[in-house]
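Now for one specimen:
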Amino acid sequence: MSTTNGSETGNGHAALTATRATEVSKLDRVVIRFAGDSGDGMQLTGDRFTSEAAAFGNDLSTMPNFPAEIRAPQGTIPGVSSFQVHFADYDILTPGDRPDVLVAMNPAALKANLGDVPRGGTIILNTDEFSKRNLVKVGYDSDPTGDDTLSAFQVHRVAMSTLTQGALADTGLGKKDAERCKNMFALGLLSWMYHRPTEGTERFLKEKFARKPDIAEANILAFRAGWNYGETTESFVTTFEVAPAKLAQGTYRQITGNTALAYGLVAAGQQSGLQILLGTYPITPASDVLHELSKHKNFGIITFQAEDEIAGIGAALGASYGGALGVTSTSGPGVALKSEAIGLGVMTELPLVVVDVQRGGPSTGLPTKTEQADLLQAMFGRNGESPVPVVAPCSPADCFDAALEATRIALQYRTPVLLLSDGAIANGSEPWLIPDVADLPDLRVEFASAPNATDDSGEFWPYVRDPETLAREWAVPGTAGLQHRIGGLEKQDGKGSISYDPDNHDHMVRLRQAKVDGVTVPDVVVDDPSGEARVLALGWGSSYGPIGAACRRVRKMGMPIAQAHLRHLNPLPKNLGALLRHYDKVVVPEMNLGQLALLLRAEYLVDIHSHSKVAGLPFKAEELQNVFADLITNLVPEGVK
């Protein structure tokens, strides 16, 4: 990631160079939201702007927001697709609460997003789409570009479709194909406004459409036309600069949560020396884990797209039985279908990583929206006593480390592990400091190589355990002298024979629970700068960013507050109980109805203030700031009974 000054755009960074004198405003952060119909290319536009911000050296965080319907009627609110990017010259934690700039490609995009734009914010409209027909589709009685609807905002009316078609008039493209390039016109205009590099986008377009050079050239021309429009029109009198962020030294790249998770699994295979088999079935928002891993066969990765969720995990578990590391990826509905096979993994005590990229439920629910409502399913969603460790990343980049940690636990303790990501993490992106391979954990395992029976029979007993981890020995089928029986019926301790003995069943149930309870996890770390906080904000998963940003705001208000975040949800860190009791009030924000709060109350008998949100969208720092400030304000003064 570059550390050059933002004012250098156009001096070696960009293929296009500014000539018109404009006022340049220096900002420390900006939030931009691109919004349009699902066919308008808003995700590509936002992703390209994000890539250039990353190459320039800004810290950033993004929030793609996809329509829930596969193809909603064009020009309607259900069909609106948006991409929000927050970039800054300092470390940031969230995609931003409200967009400083809204680019609305049609009336539906304006109506769906206008409520989020603060007074005085900038709105850039594609006026060509504000026809009477399109206005009626979304319930506008009059054209908001011509009445007082937008009087509180800085509005720029740009005929993007017309200008794009004009720029491409000599290319020979038809009107429809030419109009499809209007998203690149918008990208060019915003790139000019914020002094973004342009060479990377032009190179990307040439590579993306390498087999269709006429389409590549059309998109590049539209991109340049948008940049030149900003340069020549008198509508925009100010441009903006956001300098590169001062991040830790190293090599960075922009990465999404799903890609980081896939890379973590690749690294886990290399560090363990095991082949990875991903047995999976495509499901939103987890499918990109499959897509990314399928590109890395050179690292010993096998990807198997099964006919259904059950077949996917069955293949993964079979791979683990055969001496590989089985992985399966899904979302909440798929975890429900996989529950019996996860129980089989608990019974057979084989390593297995189950990735759950959570989405809104129940049932099919909100496939493209985010939620944290699978925690209790991960903990208890199997028949019988079937404990499994549960790990949750806190950000897109953290998915890499979380995948390695889930693998460590699965291999060291011979158990399935649930890894709980979610839609906000999976699709969001941020800079990732590429680690040094020498710093990655050693995950190598030893397979059983000789009989181990304790009765001098010379047999191999599959349930002879490591006294420290309680993990059983892992024998690769076909190893001479290690014949053994395995399956889903209860086992006799040690020998592994089928057993219906009541005392043995009680013993095995408690033993499997003890193994999970004994998983070593690091203590939870508290951020309490003043040491005077009486309120602790505790989160897990993707709530990390909003909680952290809200705590920063509360501290700037002069109120002390502590923050802690849980990666390990089962077992919980050993110091957590004492930590919870140290504070007068513990608040747990969750995108569910209070599932972690329920577990903490039951485990530690501590009063937890649960703050819930199940809207399919992440928390905003603003809303959590108000919650935290109210709790601190309403605390009984110390010493008063």
User: Anything to note?
Assistant: The CA atoms of residues 46 and 326 lie 35 Å apart. Residues 213-232 form the longest helix (20 residues). The first strand starts at residue 23 and ends at 27.
